[in-house]
Design a protein that fits this description.
Layout lengths: L3 H22 L5 H19 L5 H11 L4 H9 L1 H13 L7 H20 L2 H28 L9 H31 L1
């Protein structure tokens, strides 16, 4: 993983470029249009600073490129050749497959549960199965919520990949917030 400083520096450079494109394309903007332009350029800058290597970054760029007006902005930030490569890559990708790591973990946990069940008397077996079912349902609900929060998370089948994508997304969001806070502080001081 890259250093936080280089990530912030690249994000700031691309975000400023995106803001310049938005401002030059439309001279008079309403507050709502300005807000959308800031968010769109920040999202694309954040996604492009990860070079489209993650599922969430590709999902952000593809979702933004669905609107015809945003394609110019995306092409300017990414560069025309990078944008076309990314679109080809996304259109040719198939749904992600499960990684064997999660299968191994699941098998290991099931075998441990069976061993615990065998050791206990019959009455305790129901309690263990009930607790297991409750825990399993809780994890299932939380996984569903996590998939809805991460862009492109619905396409991720494997839990390990989902967690890795989420961590990367959180780090990128934190860098975005830090840069935006620094810009706001600099504007307040001047």
């Amino acid at each position: 993983m890259r250093s936080s400083h280089s990530m912030k520096k690249e994000f700031l450079k691309k975000w400023m470029m995106g803001l310049q494109v938005c401002v030059s394309s439309k001279k008079k903007m309403t507050v709502l249009e300005r807000k959308k332009a800031i968010k769109l350029s920040a999202d694309i800058a954040m996604a492009s600073s990860s070079n489209g290597n993650t599922c969430w970054s590709r999902a952000l760029i593809v979702n933004a490129s669905k609107h015809h007006n945003n394609k110019l902005l995306i092409e300017r930030i990414l560069g025309r050749s990078e944008y076309e490569k990314l679109i080809k890559r996304v259109s040719s990708t198939q749904p992600l497959k499960k990684i064997t790591r999660s299968k191994k973990i699941f098998k290991r946990s099931c075998s441990r549960l069976r061993r615990v069940e065998k050791r206990n008397i019959r009455g305790c077996k129901r309690v263990i199965n009930g607790a297991y079912c409750v825990a399993k349902n809780l994890v299932k609900k939380r996984r569903k919520i996590l998939r809805s929060l991460v862009p492109g998370g619905e396409m991720i089948v494997d839990d390990v990949c989902l967690i890795e994508e989420t961590l990367d997304y959180i780090l990128s969001l934190r860098a975005q917030v830090d840069v935006m806070r620094s810009v706001a502080d600099a504007c307040d001081q001047s």
